[in-house]
Amino acid sequence: MTTLGFRYHILQNIGVPAPARAHILERAINHWFSTLAWSNWHVPSPLHGVHTRTTVPFMSIGHLHATGIPSSDFREFNIVSVDGKPFYRELIDNEQGINIYDEAIDRLWQTVQLLEITIRASHDAVSIDRERIAIMFGNDTARPVPTLCLDRIPTLQDSLRGFQDALYRSNPFELLLFESPIFTVNDEWFETMRQGADALHTAYRAAATACIPQ
User: Is residue 184 left, alpha or beta, with left meaning phi > 0 and alpha meaning psi from -120 to 50?
Assistant: First the structure.
């Protein structure tokens, strides 16, 4: 079952000590995943009360923190405020009528869905219907997807490149994201993800061109 967390093991390296490489790896994962899910998302400012019209980037008030017991190699994603305290769960976007904490969690799950779509796009023909906010593989029926999945497609290639670069200093390691075998992170996984991101970007551009009035 997919879960919002990751499992890793730092392998022997006579250079950088294992604890330092573990810290680098956890920080790289948290930054990559949260940026993909939350960048450009603005929410009501908690400094001005829940009824304010003032908005701030979510990542200026909350971030991901990986937690787990010392004897375990599993880390769970948790949202904390930038001062390290528990996130303000009562913060409500009155205009949208949503709880910001719940929306933040939902965006993380939508990002997992985007990554699953990317893996499939690496080996199946893919097209995008922007009007219906849907993705179609091969001759299958178009499947509706969250808006975030389409919005993040243009950033995927750079996001994956930056993630791989950030993980480099933690080598060698074993890493499994979301407790799912399809997210066993290694060089082959990054190659698969790049192929999928390229295919999605091509489909995204084709869909955008089709929307332009002739």
Answer: beta
